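Good morning C.,

I know you're traveling, so I'll keep this short. The sequence:
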Amino acid sequence: MDSPRENFNLSGPLHITTIDWKNVEHQRSVAASLVQGVYILERDRHEKREGSQALAPPWWEFFHFKLYRQLVDDSNSSIFGAIYELDLSKQDHSLSLNEMPRYVIAFRGTIRKGDAFSQDLQLDFQVIRNGLHQTSRFEIAIQAVRNLVATFGYSTIWLAGHSLGSSMALLAGKKMAKTGIFLEAFLFNPPFLSAPIERIKHKKVKHGIRFAGSVITAGLAFTVKAKQKSRSEDPFVALSAWVPSLFVNPADHICSEYVGYFEHRKKMEEIGAGGIERLATQHSIGDLVRRAIGKESEEALHLIPSANLTVNLSPSESFKKAHGIHQWWRTDLNLQSKLYRF
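The tokens, ready to paste straight into the viewer:
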């Protein structure tokens, strides 16, 4: 039986009848809806819903997008992403082309039912072990991004993703940013891999744990860097000009650590320990340990220097809702946004 949450007319942001591309609420809602469109594309495929039975098209057609291309996993033929093209003939002609997305590349997260689940779960483990860059799914994704940028330029291309899909979009965005190409990115519930310190209610205890962690991480990073003098360019500094938009919920332990990650960096600067935190914030303990014993290691995927962080402070009934994509187009959200630059 079809879920009402898959039906755009029952669950979509029907209140956005005319898109104002300068409105951050509209940007967030449209980007989240396009990600939802990828989820429903895969469910349509699995349920063999075609033609008038398909539920996915309204999730992009309502906003005047066309499906430009599906991104398909080569291991199980599941749809994990989509490229959407905006119909420019139906847009406000008073805006320049640089003020709206011509193309949006969206990635879904883990689907818990159907034949996509096992492969999605393997990708989740790759995110945990910082090996997403080595997977064939990411190779398909980054090649699609590079081809689109090469064909149409990057000023009007957006990235969007949810959960596992946020990790895909974040990694693609970081890869492109290192080459000087900064793509607008909307990352919903992006995984942050660390101990759940943010769930500690006592602020002094929480700050003390973070402070101790920063000192240990910075010390280890200094030691490792001293041994590896050949690494001349700091990739973290190279990324600092890229400012993706992150959307997190404090009740979602998968992404909530981003709140403490950026806020702690700010507090460390306020107490005069900014130098320690600027070094610590670039590294994970696991990454540093692997380097210390001589193993090659990609920098931790979830760590980024700059971001526009939006936190949903609205009460969440459950973890499922706190982690869900549907929350991000609701009209009654209590949101707090802050810009963090490295």
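Safe travels,
E.
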